[in-house]
Design brief:
Layout (H helix, E strand, L loop, with lengths): L8 H11 L3 H13 L4 H10 L2 H107 L3 H15 L6 H63 L2 H9 L9 H4 L4 H11 L8 H12 L3 H19 L8 H25 L6 H25 L3 H19 L6 H9 L1 H22 L6 E2 L2 H7 L16 E2 L5 H20 L8 H25 L5 H28 L4 H7 L6 H23 L18 H17 L5 H24 L8 H22 L12 H4 L2 H11 L9 H7 L5 H10 L3 H6 L11 H16 L1
Antiparallel strand pairs: 1-2
C-alpha cells in the first residue's frame, strides 16, 4: 500500500493561478495522485464543467514537481553508487585470479586421481555383481523354503492332515509371501492360498455333513442305551427295596411287574455319567458312529481358517433343523409303536449336546443348548397331549408314560429341566385311571360271568399260594391238606388279582412324576374301583335274577372273603406307596362293598322267603275252629323245620357264621311275620283256642330249632343269648296273649313292656276280635242269656273295648 503524502501548497497555489481551479480541487487532485487513486472522476468533472485546461495545467504542474524530487534523490545517492562501482571492479580482478588458481588445481588433481578413479569403477562393478549374487542366493533360499512348505502342505493334504496343511500354508503366507522374490511367485501364492483354503473347507464340510447323518443314527442308539440303563437301574432299585422290606410277596410282585416303583434315592445310588452311557452305546455298536472327532476337527479347522463364528452358527442352525425333523410323528405308524424311537432320538440328541457343551471348546454355548431344549420340551409336551387325547387304552397310556418317565430320569441326570413333561403326565392322571377303571370293569364283568359260584378246589400248594396266600385271605396260618376246598369261588382271587394289577398300574403311572405322597391318590382310585366297579358289577349280577339259593350263598360267602381281601389291598397299596401301615390304617374307610353285600344277603333272604312261602301255603289246611288242638302241631311247621335244618347244614359248608346268623334271623323273623299274617289275614274270619294251641306247638318247635342253632354262634364277639329265638318274639307274644287267662293285663304298662313289647295295638284288636266263641259271634246275646260268662272271655272283651276306646 502506498504511503500517503501531504499536499504541496506551492503546487496548489500555482495551479490556482494558472487554470482558474480552486485550491480545494488542486489539493484533492494532488492527494489522489499521491495515493495512486483513480483520476477518472476528476477528468469527467473537468469535461463536464467545460474546463479541461485547468485539469491539464494541474497535471503538468504535478509532473514538474515530481521531476524536481527525482533529481534531488539522484543527487543524494550518486556518491554511494560510484563507491559501489569501484568495489565491483576490484572484485572482478580477484575472481579472475581465483579462477586461474582453480584451473591449475584441477589440472593437477586430474593427473593425480586418474588411476584411483579407474580402480573405483572396477570396485563398484564388482560390488554390483556381489549384490546381485547375494539377492539371487536369498531368493533361492526363499524359494526353497516356500517349495518345501508347499510340498509339506501337499503331503498333509494327501494324508488328510488338513490342520497341518493349513499351518504350512499359514507359515508360507506369513513369512514368505511379503518377501516373495518374484511377482510371478507372489501372484501364484496369492491365488494358491485362497484355493487351498476353499479346498480344505469343502473337504471338512463334507466330513461334517457325513457326521451329521451318522450322529442322528448314533443318537437314537445312544438314547435307547441310556434309557435301558435307567430302566435296569430302576428295576434293580425296586428289587433291592423289595428285599429290604422283608415282604416275599411284595418282592415277587415287583419282580413280575414291568413298571416297578421308583425309589426316592434312585438317582443318588445310580452312579454314572454320560461317559458310561456313551461307553455302553459304543459297546453295543460300532465306535465310529459315536465318534465326535469329525465335529471337533471341523470346528478346529474353521477356527484356523478364521470362520469359527460362522461354523458355530451353521452348526447350531443345522442341529436345530435336525431336532425339528426328529419331531415329525408319522401318521401311518401308531404312536405306541414309534414312541420309543421318538423319545430315544431326543434323549440321544441332548446327551450328545451335553457332551459337546462340556468338551467342545466353546462350539456351542449354554444359552444355545437351553434354546434347543426349550424347543424340544415344548414339542414333546404338544405331542404327548395330542397322543394322550387320542388314546383309549390304559395299557398304552402306561407304556408311553413309563418311557417318558425314564426319559425324564435320564435327562435329569444331565441337568435338563423335565418338569413340563411331568406336568403333562400329572394332567393325564384322571383320564388314565378312567381308562384303567373301564378295563377293570370289563374284566370284572367277564370274571363274574365266568364264575359258576361254586366253592373253589385247589389241588396243589402252588395254587393255594397264588390264590390265597398272595392276597392274605387264608383262615389259618397252617397250610391245609390238599386237595383243599376254599370257602370262596374262583371269582374272588380273580377280583383280587384285578385289584392288585390296578394298584400296581396306578402306582406305576404316578411314580417317577415328582410327587412324593401318592398313597391318598392311589387310595382314592382304589376306592372307586371297589365301590363303583366291583360293587356295581356285583349289584348288576344280583339284580339280573339268575342266581339260585346256593349261588346266592356263595356270593354272600365271597363278600366276607372280599372284605378281608380289601384290607390287604389297602395295606398293599400303602406298602407300594412307601407309607407305613399304621398311617394307612388311620385313614382307611369301611368296607367299600357294603351295598353289594347287603343286596346279596337281601337276595338270599328273599330266595329263602320264597321257599318258606311255599311251605307256608300248607297253612291252608289249618283248622281254625278245631275241636281239639293238633298234638304234633300243624303240617307246615314240620316242612319248615326240615328245610331249615337242611339249609343250616348246607350253609355251614359255604356261609361264614356271622352271615348265617343274619340269614337265620331274617328267616325266623319272616316266619314270625307270616304267622302274624295268618291271624291278621282276611281269610281267617275266626279261630278258637285249639287253633291257637296248635300255633303254639308250631312256635315251640321252631324256637327249639333256634335254641339248637344258638350253639353255633356262641364264639361270635357280638353274640347275644337267645338271639335267634328273639326273632320269633312278636308271634310268641301274640300267642302268649291269646293263651293267657287274663288278656286284660296287656293294658298294664309294666306287664306290656315286659311281656308284650313287640305287639301293636291295632294288630291286637284285629286278632282278638276274631278270637271269640262261635255262639257269641253267631247269635249275639240270645244264646247266652242267663248263662255265666267265661272270665277269660270277659277279660278279652274288656281288652277289646278299651283298646278301641284308646284308638
Amino acid at each position: 500500500m502506498r504511503r500517503k503524502v501531504a499536499p504541496d501548497s506551492s503546487a496548489m497555489a500555482a495551479g490556482g493561478g494558472g487554470g482558474g481551479a480552486t485550491e480545494a480541487e488542486q489539493a484533492q487532485l494532488s492527494t489522489a495522485i499521491r495515493n495512486g487513486e483513480d483520476l477518472g472522476p476528476f477528468v469527467r468533472r473537468a469535461f463536464a464543467s467545460g474546463r479541461p485546461e485547468a485539469l491539464l495545467s494541474s497535471l503538468r504542474h504535478v509532473a514538474r514537481s515530481k521531476e524536481v524530487e527525482i533529481e534531488d534523490v539522484c543527487k543524494a545517492h550518486y556518491q554511494d553508487f560510484m563507491g559501489a562501482v569501484d568495489d565491483l571492479r576490484s572484485l572482478l580482478s580477484d575472481v579472475d585470479s581465483l579462477k586461474s588458481a582453480l584451473a591449475d588445481s584441477n589440472a593437477a588433481l586430474q593427473s593425480t586421481v586418474g588411476p584411483l578413479l579407474a580402480s573405483l569403477d572396477a570396485y563398484l562393478e564388482a560390488r554390483s555383481v556381489a549384490d546381485n549374487l547375494t539377492a539371487a542366493i536369498r531368493a533361492a533360499r526363499l524359494c526353497s523354503r516356500l517349495f518345501a512348505l508347499l510340498a509339506r502342505a501337499n503331503e498333509h493334504l494327501a494324508a488328510d492332515r488338513l490342520y497341518l496343511a493349513l499351518r504350512a500354508i499359514a507359515a508360507a503366507e506369513r513369512d514368505l509371501l511379503p518377501a516373495a522374490p518374484h511377482p510371478t511367485i507372489r501372484r501364484m501364492l496369492v491365488s494358491l492360498i485362497p484355493a487351498l483354503h476353499a479346498h480344505v473347507e469343502r473337504k471338512i464340510f463334507k466330513e461334517f455333513s457325513d457326521w451329521m447323518v451318522q450322529i442322528r443314527v448314533a443318537s437314537r442308539h445312544l438314547g435307547q442305551t441310556a434309557i435301558e440303563r435307567a430302566s435296569a437301574a430302576r428295576q434293580c432299585q425296586a428289587e433291592e427295596q423289595g428285599i429290604r422290606s422283608g415282604s416275599t410277596v411284595a418282592a415277587a410282585i415287583f419282580r413280575n411287574h414291568p413298571y416297578s416303583l421308583r425309589l426316592k434315592d434312585e438317582e443318588d445310588d445310580w452312579s454314572g455319567d454320560d461317559s458310561d452311557d456313551l461307553a455302553a452305546a459304543v459297546a453295543d455298536a460300532e465306535a465310529s458312529i459315536l465318534d465326535l472327532t469329525p465335529l471337533y476337527r471341523a470346528h478346529h479347522i474353521h477356527a484356523t481358517l478364521g470362520l469359527e463364528e460362522r461354523f458355530r452358527r451353521y452348526y447350531f442352525e443345522n442341529r436345530k433343523l435336525q431336532l425339528t425333523s426328529d419331531f415329525q410323528v408319522s401318521s401311518l405308524t401308531p404312536f405306541l409303536e414309534s414312541h420309543q424311537i421318538f423319545f430315544a432320538q431326543i434323549v440321544g440328541f441332548f446327551i450328545v449336546e451335553d457332551r459337546i457343551l462340556r468338551t467342545g471348546g466353546g462350539l456351542i454355548a449354554p444359552p444355545d443348548v437351553d434354546a434347543l431344549w426349550e424347543i424340544a420340551i415344548t414339542k414333546m409336551v404338544s405331542v404327548l397331549e395330542d397322543q394322550f387325547s387320542l388314546m383309549q387304552t390304559a395299557n398304552h397310556f402306561l407304556l408311553i408314560k413309563d418311557y417318558v418317565s425314564l426319559l425324564g430320569v435320564t435327562l435329569h441326570r444331565y441337568c435338563y429341566s423335565v418338569d413340563p413333561l411331568l406336568d403333562v403326565l400329572s394332567k393325564q392322571r384322571d383320564k388314565y385311571h378312567d381308562l384303567l377303571l373301564s378295563d377293570c370293569r370289563r374284566q370284572v364283568s367277564e370274571t363274574l360271568a365266568a364264575d359258576k359260584f361254586e366253592q373253589m378246589l385247589m389241588k396243589t400248594e402252588y395254587e393255594y399260594s397264588m390264590n390265597v396266600l398272595s392276597f392274605q385271605i387264608q383262615t389259618s396260618d397252617i397250610t391245609p391238606a390238599f386237595p383243599y376246598v376254599a370257602s370262596f369261588s374262583s371269582s374272588v382271587p380273580d377280583l383280587c388279582g384285578i385289584c392288585g394289577s390296578f394298584i400296581r398300574d396306578s402306582i406305576s403311572f404316578m411314580s417317577h412324576g415328582g410327587q412324593l405322597d401318592i398313597y391318598p391318590i392311589v387310595k382314592k382310585y382304589l376306592e372307586r374301583l371297589l365301590g363303583e366297579v366291583i360293587d356295581g358289577s356285583i349289584l348288576c349280577l344280583i339284580k339280573s335274577g339268575g342266581l339260585g339259593v346256593s349261588q346266592a350263598m356263595q356270593v354272600a360267602a365271597n363278600m366276607v372273603v372280599l372284605e378281608q381281601a380289601c384290607n390287604f389291598l389297602f395295606r398293599h397299596a400303602a406298602q407300594l406307596s412307601g407309607i407305613p401301615l399304621h398311617i394307612a390304617e388311620k385313614v382307611r374307610r369301611g368296607f367299600p362293598l357294603k351295598k353289594s353285600r347287603t343286596a346279596t344277603e337281601e337276595l338270599l333272604l328273599g330266595l329263602l322267603k320264597k321257599k318258606i312261602d311255599d311251605f307256608m301255603m300248607l297253612t291252608d289246611s289249618i283248622s281254625w275252629m278245631a275241636d281239639s288242638p293238633p298234638p304234633s302241631g300243624n303240617e307246615y311247621s314240620n316242612e319248615v323245620i326240615i328245610y331249615l335244618e337242611t339249609l343250616v347244614s348246607t350253609a355251614l359248608q359255604i356261609l361264614p357264621i356271622q352271615v348265617l346268623r343274619r340269614i337265620l334271623q331274617g328267616v325266623l323273623t319272616y316266619i314270625s311275620n307270616t304267622i302274624m299274617g295268618l291271624f291278621l289275614s282276611d281269610t281267617v274270619k275266626r279261630f278258637n283256642l285249639n287253633a291257637v294251641m296248635g300255633i303254639d306247638v308250631d312256635l315251640k318247635r321252631i324256637e327249639s330249632f333256634a335254641d339248637d342253632q344258638s350253639d353255633l354262634f356262641t364264639d361270635s364277639d357280638d353274640f347275644v343269648a337267645n338271639e335267634l329265638k328273639l326273632a320269633l318274639l312278636e308271634a310268641r307274644q301274640l300267642v302268649n296273649l291269646l293263651l293267657c287267662n287274663n288278656p286284660e293285663n296287656f293294658l298294664n304298662p309294666v306287664i306290656r313292656e315286659r311281656s308284650y313289647n313287640k305287639l301293636n295295638y291295632k294288630k291286637v284288636i284285629t286278632v282278638t276280635e276274631k278270637f271269640r266263641e262261635s255262639s257269641v259271634r253267631l247269635f249275639g246275646t240270645f244264646g247266652t242269656r242267663g248263662a255265666r260268662q267265661n272270665p277269660k272271655q270277659k277279660s278279652l272283651d274288656a281288652l277289646i273295648k278299651r283298646l278301641k276306646d284308646a284308638s
